[in-house]
Write a structure and sequence with these properties.
With about 375 residues, the protein is an alpha/beta fold. Helix content is about 45%, strand content about 15%. A seven-stranded parallel beta sheet has the order 3-2-1-4-5-6-7, sandwiched between helices. It has a six-stranded parallel beta sheet with strand order 10-9-8-11-12-13, with helices on both faces. Helix 8 packs across helix 14 and helix 12 packs across helix 15. The chain is elongated.
Length: about 375
């Protein structure tokens, strides 16, 4: 049933696709349930959301804001503390500038709700909204909340999460696990491999391994494939390999593609790739995991160690504890990854167990449920 009241809603956050695409999914669902509602995005003026969001016909306003540059190793705090102090020296000015700009945005737009999706650009607008008495919400994608969301969790009215037991990390009383918003195409994958095999020019009868390191690629995953290339070429399975734009030119220039290895910088038709796959190798970003649970194909997760608070390892461990994946540490991937692939392809019992457990973890209606709950709360 369509909601009749017209709402004005601000969605804030960004910095990575893991924040941006859930915002876009929620925006689309808001418009679907209530076409007359107004949606405004707030991001950081020098991050990727400023390019991506307008392509989906939404307005986005950028704040002059950046995150805290942290000293990477505590043992080097004396040697590295001073450079990091200089990198953070403009941060208080940026925060005050962004808060003042946020107040003007709020007074002009007069939102019924402000929803933060994480990333430092959501901080000033949520703080300002709270100060001015607007209703505030958080949608936390990860099993371990980001820094901004942890700080703001006890100030907002309601928090949507995607993992159980999140009250261990966030202080808000009103917490509801409805899952992560995912792209529409994920819930309606083609059941047949025929179209997918034609699209990728691969053999419909062979088992297929899909390798996705993210749109930018993943150095360790690419190196793991390169290390085991001769084994893959001689194997009975085939590979769809998304290298990422940053790695593709070098890999492609070596003419590594064969009849059973399809190499792409970025996969436009991810629905067909998921449909074709028998096993999926992936990083462990929260949105990727939410999609992969819905897809329900056997997973080998290689968490990136180069993310804030090591949240990808926490995400992957949550899935592992529910027997929904095989976890390979980044440092072990070169030696261990292909062994795990071959073992899994030959273990039908393990494949069926992972599929069954992933389906239990999936929340295909998360986007609808979050917006529906939001409208109820308003």
């Amino acid at each position: 049933m369509l909601n009749k009241k017209k709402y004005r809603i601000i969605l804030c956050g960004g910095g990575t696709g893991g924040h941006i695409f859930p915002m876009l999914s929620i925006a689309d669902e808001i418009k679907k349930q209530n076409i007359d509602s107004k949606v405004l995005f707030i991001g950081s003026k020098d991050r990727m959301e400023m390019d991506i969001i307008p392509k989906y016909n939404y307005k986005v306003i950028g704040l002059w804001i950046s995150g805290i540059k942290r000293v990477p190793y505590i043992n080097n705090i004396i040697g590295m503390g001073l450079p990091f102090l200089f990198k953070n020296i403009s941060l208080p000015i940026k925060i005050m500038h962004s808060i003042i700009k946020s107040i003007f945005i709020l007074l002009k737009f007069k939102p019924d709700a402000v929803i933060g999706f994480g990333g430092y650009s959501s901080g000033p607008i949520l703080l300002s909204s709270n100060f001015l008495g607007y209703k505030t919400f958080i949608q936390e994608q990860n099993s371990f909340p980001g820094y901004t969301n942890r700080i703001l969790s006890n100030k907002v009215n309601f928090i949507f999460v995607a993992f159980d037991n999140m009250n261990r990390y966030i202080k808000g009383k009103n917490i509801l696990n409805l899952g992560n918003p995912v792209r529409k195409i994920i819930s309606n994958l083609p059941s047949s491999k025929k179209k997918a095999s034609k699209y990728f020019n691969l053999d419909n009868s062979k088992k297929t391994v899909l390798v996705i390191g993210g749109s930018l690629g993943a150095k360790t995953i690419n190196e793991s494939i390169l290390t085991n290339l001769s084994l893959i070429k001689e194997s009975s399975f085939q590979l769809i390999w998304q290298t990422g734009n940053g790695y593709y030119n070098k890999i492609e220039s070596d003419n590594l593609e064969t009849s059973n290895i399809k190499i792409l910088p970025f996969i436009e038709r991810m629905d067909l790739a998921y449909s074709m796959a028998d096993i999926i190798i992936s990083r462990a970003g929260a949105i990727s995991i939410s999609e992969l649970c819905i897809v329900g194909k056997p997973l080998i997760l290689i968490p990136s160690p180069n993310v804030a608070d090591d949240h990808q390892t926490k995400n992957a461990t949550n899935i592992l504890n529910n027997k929904g994946c095989i976890l390979v540490k980044d440092k072990d991937a070169k030696n261990q990854l292909m062994k795990e692939v071959v073992d899994l392809l030959n273990n039908d019992k393990k494949i069926n167990e992972i599929k069954k457990n992933l389906k239990k973890l999936s929340k295909p209606n998360a986007t609808f449920n979050i917006v529906n709950e939001l409208f109820k709360l308003l």
